[in-house]
Amino acid sequence: MAIVTHPRIWVPPTPLEVALDAVQGWFEASGFEPIGEGPDHLKVLAAFVRSGQVAGPRIHDGRIAAICESHGVRELWTVDRDFGRFSIRTVNPLVQKT
After folding, report:
1. pLDDT of residue 53
2. In this structure, what DSSP letter does residue 84 have?
3. Among residues 57, 45, 30, 53, which one has the least CA distance to residue 88?
């Protein structure tokens, strides 16, 4: 939601209520299973941010990568190239595979 509602990224930005409704829809979708920090989160996060030499706002990317790693996510779809710093496989869903 931070991206779609950001007025410097989108003109006009997505209204907050529209963004919240979209996320609510995901939570209500069949098969949706939210994941979050587990017992090993700090250990995995520390390894990711150290190996990727991460600091500042990229720590949040490390947090996402660590959560994925801890839950067995093998592939992360993102257009954010900063995730290349971590060991999780990334795919840009907007780029056609050749």
Report:
1. 87
2. G
3. 45
